Amino acid sequence: MFAVHFYENNIIVLTQALRNIPVVDEELRIKGRKCKVLDVSYNDNNHVHVQIEFEKIVEKSKAALELGKKKKR
Of 21, 30, 23, 25, which Cα lies nearest the Cα of 2? Predict the structure, then answer.
């Protein structure tokens, strides 16, 4: 078992005890969000640091939000 620490921009996102270590360019789901593994570094015998990047969230346009506000009769 390895203690895997997931980091995004030097901010710890999640720490898990895993049997399999993620591989570079692997796509994961952490906290319900898609992310991609950028770098894997072995810190100690059982500690692994994984750099990830979350997929950008695209916000809805204002026009689409205004259409939803109209009342239906």
Answer: 21
